[in-house]
Structure formats: C-alpha cells, structure tokens
Amino acid sequence: MTIPPFTLNAFRMTSNVAAMTTFLTALGFRLEVSSLQGVGGAPAYVVLRGRSGRVTLHHSEDPTAAGSTQVTVDTDDLDGAVVALTAAGYPATSWDEAFGRAAKAATLRGPLWIASTGPDDNDYGYQRHQVVTPGHVDVELALASTDVRGDRDLLVGLGARVVTLGDAYCCLAFPGGGYVGLSVGQPATEPDLDGGWAAELGLATSESGEAVLAHLRAAGCAAEIADAGYGPIVRTTDPDGQTVAITLQTRGDGGGAAG
Question: Rounded CA gap, 255 and 109, in Å?
C-alpha cells in the first residue's frame, strides 16, 4: 500500500503570531488558514503556504517553547495515510484536534505529527483564505542527526526523495512540497510537540540576495548575505529571536507545491 504524498509543514510555537506572519509574508508566504479567535486582536493560529511547503504558527505563552520548530506533514488523505503508515511499519492513530483532524505515526526518531488538509465541511472555528500565488520561497527545515543514513532511509520510507546526497549532509524533497536538510549533529533539545522531530526553520529562494535583503528590511528585519560553505545565504533573525538561514538557490527539481 502506497503512503499518500505528504507536504512538509514547519510547526512553529511563537509568542508573536502577528510579527511572525509579517516576517514570513515579506519573504513570499501567503495566508491559508487563520483562527477566528486570537490574542491581542491577532489570530492565535495561522497556516502560511510557500511555493513549496507550509509553515504553521501556534501561539504559546510558554517562553521556553516559543521559537521551537518541529517537522510535521500534511495530507489530503489522512485515513489512507494512517492505514498505509501502519502497514509500512509506522503504527499510526488519528483523532480530532482543536484545529482539525490529525494523526501521529511512531518512528525510530520519535512520533511524526500529521495534519489533514482534505476537504471537510467542519472548519473547526477557523477561516480558510483564498491563497494568491506564493512568492519564490520554499520551506527547508534543518534537521540535525547522529545517523544521517538512518534518518535518510526513514524519510525515504515516508515518501521523500533524495535531492542532494553526501556523507555528512542530505537534502530530501517531500512529494507534496517542502525540503528537509539532514546534517551531522546532535538533535535539537528545545521543547517540542510531545517528543516530535525538533528542527530549525530554514528557507530557500530563487530570488537574488539583494531582493531578499530588501524584503526583510522593508519588514524591519536586519539581515546580511553570508557564505555558508555550500553557497551564499541570507542570514536574519526572526521575531522569536531565532536565526534563519535563507539559501540563495533553487533546487530546480520541482520539489512539489504545497497542496
């Protein structure tokens, strides 16, 4: 049984949903879902779509959790995903969350959270927005690993495709959109979602460094172009105080559009 195509969704706990939304829309993300009730007049829950992949922002009053990011995935076929994942050796269960239907699959790296993006008559108190075409920005989460080969095989088993392969680094694309960059290192230990896959928010763009700098400065964010060793990046700090690296290159392989 084939696992339905997943779209990568970077799940970010944040103490300032409004500022993070402004930061991400300046880079080309577009609003897809928002809560009708919020904090201080701003939504407490927002989903933004990029050219490839999504970012979810969830308000947190916990200062130790704000700024943490987790690897999650979306699917239009949650029930099919639960059955296929379980058959593939990743026992999965589903339930109703406050924001919609969700599931969790057991993996060697810890539980992988899955959200349903399929048609549903019940909007769970959230507003769906008509998404205009996103800008030239992709989600590219940085995932530290003590076993790059093992985690690579795990992601391939979940349907991802290897784009770049090395001894200490591997980039994989999810069929529905979004990338994960695996590199040798100690996995993040900041608070995450019930033992899930903690990661660092990273992005990639086919725009020039000067264009990205202009977007960020217009949004009030300081930024600089730097050499990351594998190529140029724009380095900036998001409203949660987290460093974000924006790779100045396009994968050029149609890694998928968030669906």
Answer: 23
The DSSP line for 76-118 is: S-HHHHHHHHHHTT--EEEEEETTEEEEEE--TTS-EEEEE-S
Query: pTM for the whole thing?
Result: 0.92
The pairing of strands 92-97 and 100-105 is antiparallel
pLDDT per position as a tens digit, 22-42: 999 999 999 999 988 777 778
DSSP state string for 149-194: HHHHHHHHHTT-EEEEE-SSEEEEE-TTS-EEEEEESPPP-S--ST
Q: Which of 48, 110, 109, 113 is nearest to 74 (CA)?
A: 113
What's the confidence (pLDDT) of residue 235?
97
Which residue numbers in the chain have pLDDT < 50? 252-257, 259
| CA 3 – CA 90 distance, rounded (Å) | 11
Q: How many CB atoms lie within 10 A of CB 149?
A: 12
Domains of the chain: 1-119+134-259 (3.10.180.10)
Q: Rounded to an integer, what distance in angstroms lies between the CA atom of residue 68 and that of residue 201?
A: 9
Non-local CB neighbours of 259 within 8 Å, separated by 6+ positions: 5, 7, 76, 117, 176, 177
Instruction: Report d(CA 242, CA 94) in Å as an integer.
Output: 32
**b/e sequence 188-225, b meaning 16+ C-beta within 10 Å:** beeebbeebbbbbbbbbbbbebeebbebbeebebebee
Structure tokens at 79: 């029930």
